[in-house]
Every structure is written in structure tokens, then in C-alpha cells.
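Help wanted!
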Amino acid sequence: MSRPPTTGRLVWILSLGSLLLLWVAAAALTDPLTLPGPVQVLGVMGREAADGELFHHLAVTLYRVALAFVLAMSLGIMIGLWMGLNRSADRFLDLWLVFFLNLPALVVMILAYVWLGLTEVAAILAVTVNKVPNVVVTVREGARALDPKLAEMARVFRFTRWQTLCHVILPQMAPFLAAAARSGIALIWKIVLVVELLGRGSGVGFKLHLHFQLFEIDAILAYALAFIAVMQIVEWGILRPLEQRANRWRHA
Amino acid sequence: MTALDIHVRAKRFGEDTVLQDLELKVADGEVVAITGRSGVGKTTLLNIIAGLDTAFEGTVSPGPADRRVGYVFQEPRLLPWRTVTENLCLASRIGPAEAERWLRDIGLAGEGQKLPGQLSLGMQRRVAVARALALRPAVLLLDEPFASLDVETAVEMRALLQRLLAAHPTTTLLVTHDAAEAAELATRNIVLDSLQGPSPTV
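Answered by r_m:
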């Protein structure tokens, strides 16, 4: 952030350029069926966009990501705060946490689909269950790092529970919540694709599955690139600004 | 009239007994300075009075639930993410206009929109004093209000406290390790060691 912006931008352009160049070179060395070049992939992307397919499946996937994200964050924050602030809760739930942290994502998905059928509920639930433990770990860390001196101040000055939460606890938790949100988005969108691939009839994951069966590499790359672009917009347009706002007082 | 009747039979931290057979009656409007070497339990005594420390044998009456306590901690303990005015309004339950009056009283007029981190330690501590007094507390607790201030700032702080306590007479307990500064502010001075043992001086 303290680097002069022109140097940073130059490195960024250079970096992107080399990646593209590498792609073009690799595509030239192989045949277009194995690794299509950027022009071909962009062409497919344009075609899918023109008939509305691309935006439809992107929107469906984004909706699933958003829903699972909100659910996982809410649950994770509640459990994480509870475990961070209450020692017996922490001792009791720690084993559960270890279990769910180490439970492979694929197992959760398969079980959800077996128990609940190939339904939307099962898909969202599987993603949420996969993400909650990570949020819990980060939020618990934040709750443990809360300043006891400010908590004493709030007690002496008789802050209400709500005031303590809004003015004392949440501002201290902000960096941890931002970290949980950041890694949450990154993990969830990857899991959502797998969930869609295994048992949904729409979404980017479903399209990837379809084109995999037809060995259409250009379409696979087109959807992957489009989705990466969308997630970067979410990161830069929503997550970063929120994080900066929450941390404004630090730079005062 | 007795504003505060403290009787601590024993306060222990693990194996160590910090306070023992301590009896202290504070009259209404009195400013009591409590001195004593470090580790003797001065801050612990304030925490007991404030109701922050309840793990002790003995009684404090009236209990912390029945009286308002204004506590000026050793560190200012302002919320770093709220402006000075927001800190005052939130903790002391006053409006912005009254907060501004308090800021003028402590020589920080116009600084209300700043964050605590933008103020010096001396200024932050003045805000902490205003926060405690604006609550109109039954008991004001001051824990080393002059610690880690340079000589000049400490003199200013002492003058400010004298002025504020004259304007808002409040029963006050002032903890310090400096007997001289205690004598200047207090109506009564107590050395904490002398409170302990079978024959307490009051």
C-alpha cells in the first residue's frame, strides 16, 4: 500500500502479460482441443454470454455462494464467540470442531445428497457445514484476543449487552471477521462448484460437468475465467471496502 | 454521613494474601488518598469497590449495584474506534452538547471529533476523568492519575482535578504511590499497610 502506485501497476501488468504469454505459447505447442488459446476461449465466452447461458449459470452459482456464505458466517460467529468467551463450551465443543474440521468436504456432500436427496437444501447445507468450522476457529481466536481491560470499563460504566457488543466487542473482532469472510468466500465458491457438479442441474459446476463429458476444454476454461472474474469483483468491490471501513480508526 | 463502608477480611491471589482485615469508612464528599508501595493491593481495593473484583471475603456497602461508580483507570481505556465525543456520550449517558461542555472544562474544546489515538496520553487521561465525572457518580475512583506523565503535564492534571472536584464535589478515592501529590489533593491520606493488621487506623 505504501509502494508508489505506478510501480505496483507496472508489476501487475507485467505479471498478467507473462501469464497470458505463457498461455498463448502453451496453446501454440499443443492442439486447440487439448489447450485452446485465449482468443478461442474468449469466443466461447462471448457466445455463451450472447445466448444468456453464461449469466444464468453464474447468477445461480453466485446466489448459492451468497446464501451458504451468510449461513456459515452467522452460525460460525455465534459458535465462535461462544467458544471463545466460555471455557466450558470451548472444552465441550473442541472435539466436535476437530472432527468437522477434518471431515472431507466430499463426504459431507455425498451424505447430504444421500440423506436429503439431490435438492437445493442438501446442496446449501453441505456447503455451509463445510465452512462453519473454519469460521468458528477464526472467530474463536478473535474472541480470545478481546481486551479484558475494555470489558472491565464497559462493566463499570454499565454498558448494556447490546452496547458492549456493538461498541466494544465487534470493533475488536473486525479484523478476524474480515479474515473469516475472505477465506470463507474463497473456500465456499470452490465447494459450491463441486456440489453443483455432483447433484445440481444448474450453475457453473453443472456446466463444467457437462463440458467435461463432451471434452470441450474451451468452454470449461471460459466458465472458469468468467467465475474467477466475478469472484474478484466481489473481493474488490465488496470485501475490501468493508474491511477498510472497519479498520479506519487504526490509521488515525 | 458515611458514603462508603469497606470491610475486606481477606483478598487472596492463589497463595498470596493481598488485603487482610482492612476497614475503611469514607464520609460523604471526602477525598481519600491511598498510598503504599506497589503490589500492596491498591488497585485491587479499587476493583473491589467498583464491583469488578467479587472474589474476596468481606463486604462493601452500599454494594456496587446500589451506587454509581466513576472509575478512572490507570490506562485511559477509551474506545479507540469511537471519537472522543462518542466515548463521553456512550459511557456517561450524556448528549453531545453536554459532552462539549465537559471538553471545554478539561481544556479540550473542539477536539471531540478526534479519535483517542490522535490525543496525547495526558489528554486521553483528561477525557477519562471527564467520562467518570460526567456520570455524576456516588464514588469516584482514581488509579494513579499522574503515572507516566511528564512533570509539567502532571502538575496540570493535578490542578485540573482540584478544579473539577471543587466544581463537582464527589466522594473520591485516589490511589497513588506519591505521598506529596496525595497531600495536595486529599482531605485524608491513608497508607495501605497501616490498614492491615488487628488494629486498623481510620
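OP: Thanks! One thing I noticed: Chain B touches chain A at residues 50-52, 69, 71, 73, 75, 77, 79-82, 90-92, 114-115, 117-118, 131, 135 (CB under 8 Å).
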